[in-house]
Structures are given as C-alpha cells and as structure tokens.
Amino acid sequence: MLEPLVRAALLEDLGRAGDLTTDAIVPAELWTRTALAARQSGIVAGQDLARLAFELIDPAVRFQSLRPDGAGVSPGDVIARVTGPARAILTAERVALNFLGHLSGIATATASLVESVRGTGARIVCTRKTTPGLRAVEKYAVRAGGGANHRFGLDDAILIKDNHVAIAGGVREALRRARAGAGHLVKIELEIDTLEQLEEALDEGVDAVLLDNMDPENLMKAVAMTAGRAVTEASGRITPLTAPAIAASGVDLISAGWLTHSAAVLDIGLDFEALENEPTL
Predict the structure, then answer these.
(1) Catalytic: 51?
(2) How many domains, the chain?
(3) What is the documented function of this protein (predicted)?
C-alpha cells in the first residue's frame, strides 16, 4: 500500500523532466552522508515512506533508522541517516520530509491527547476525516502516537448518524433497519444528540453510542444510563484542555477528527554530514 503513495508523490514532484536544479549542479559521482534531524520535540512516524522515497529514486541509497516510529525526539536528535548518491538524496528530500513531517505531526498531536487523559479509562481514537488517499498511513501515525483507530471505511461497521435517523424517521426504526441489513459480525453504533435518544437506543439494543458534543455533565449521565450495555464514545471540540473533563465522565473512547485532518507537521530537516566521491568496488 505504501509504494503507490510514494511513487505518486515523486511523480508529482519530478514531472516530465526530473530535478532540473540538482541535475545541473550536483556531480553524478558525488556521494553524501546525511541526517534526518528533528527541529522540535515530538513523536516520530512515517520512516518507511521516507525510506521508499529515497530508494525509489536510487536503490543505492541506504536508510538507517536510529529512532523507531513511536519514539520521542527532541530538537537536534537524529532520526535516521541517509547515505548514497547526492543527486538521489536531494531529489527525494522533499517527498521524504513531507511524509515524515506530516505523519510525525499526527503522532505528536495524538500523543498530546493521550497524555491529557492518562490515568482514566478513556482511549483516544481517530476518525475518517483523513487526507484522501492517505487514510491508512495517517491512521498508522495515530497508533504510533499511542492512539487507536475508529473505522477505516464505510464497510468496517455501521455508524448511524443524525441524517440516517432523520431519513429513517427515528432512532428505533434506524436501528431496526440497520440490524436487518447487517451481518452477524457487524457492529452497530448510533450517534446520540440527547439523553432521550440514548434511552431509545438502549431499549432497542446497540453495540456502541457516539455521544456528540455533550458537555461533561451530560456525558456522565449518559455513561450512568448506559451502565456497560454499550461502548460509549465522546466526540466534538476535543482538545488537550477539554479532554480530561470528558474522560473523567467515564466514556470508553474519545474521538477527534482534527488529529488526521489538521495536525501541524513536525519540523524535521535533512542535514549534510559528509561529501565524497562515489565509492569504488
């Protein structure tokens, strides 16, 4: 799944004529040793994509990871060393850093949320609000940051949202239709806006309830009403500041879409350490 993503990114960057700047300036026989180094503190994710970016340009490039995905880094820490033809390394640099910075940013943001609810029973999960084409790797980055994954797609489970309820004519009818159309291994989750809807859902039977935009007081009431009969998930306006009170309500899961669609990149740079002529065999 990774190689097509990296090939597409390289093609987007190289276009029809390749790296005009590097090919004009850098001698073909020049080799270099470089370091992928953190410019700020965070959690690393995405090294497999960075490695592929370099190796697809030239298989002679060697990528040595020094900090595994999921590891914490501070400014100046070397994440990996990349050795090989200077042209290839420079040509692949931006694609490698784009993937590495983006996924490390997601892992870092996830870790901040995970830390904010430490000591509670709540788990941090992502959503389907992902960059088109990058869902698998963005959800991987969430796991690298200590979070967990919600659905990967519409075919993972049934999640009945407010529009489904409106079309069905109510909570009970939506649940009945979903149950009639679901296989015996398919879980059913229902988005809940009010405690009245929650009562209907529990009476009808449901595997999980998505408690949307409820304040901590109502979340606590919802958890007490549910009493273990369904998995409870809270969503809406989740930040490291709001998450502790939400987790204290006793919910099982806290989902945040911004982890994948709006997390800031982690600043990572490529530093040259040594230049030499192409080694002879």
Answers:
(1) no
(2) 2
(3) Involved in the catabolism of quinolinic acid (QA).
For 6, counting Cβ atoms within 10 Å of its Cβ (0-12 exposed, 13-18 middle, 19+ buried), the class is buried
Active site (annotated) includes residue 139: no
Choose, from 161, 217, 237, 271, the residue flagged as catalytic: 161
User: Is 29 an annotated catalytic residue?
Assistant: no
What CATH number did the domain enclosing 102 receive? 3.90.1170.20
Q: pLDDT of 60-99, one tens digit each?
A: 999 999 999 999 999 999 999 999 999 999 999 999 999 9
* Whether residue 121 sits in one domain with residue 243: yes
Q: What is the DSSP-derived secondary structure letter of residue 206?
A: -
Which residue among 67, 81, 94, 128 is the active-site one? 94
Give the per-residue pLDDT at 124. 98
Residue 94 annotated among the catalytic residues of the structure = yes
Tokens of 229: 């009969």
pTM above 0.70, yes or no: yes
Give the range of the structural domain holding residue 76, as residue numbers without chain letter. Answer: 2-106+264-277
Same structural domain for residues 44 and 69? yes
Is the domain of 269 the same as that of 242?
A: no
> What CATH number corresponds to the domain at position 134?
3.20.20.70
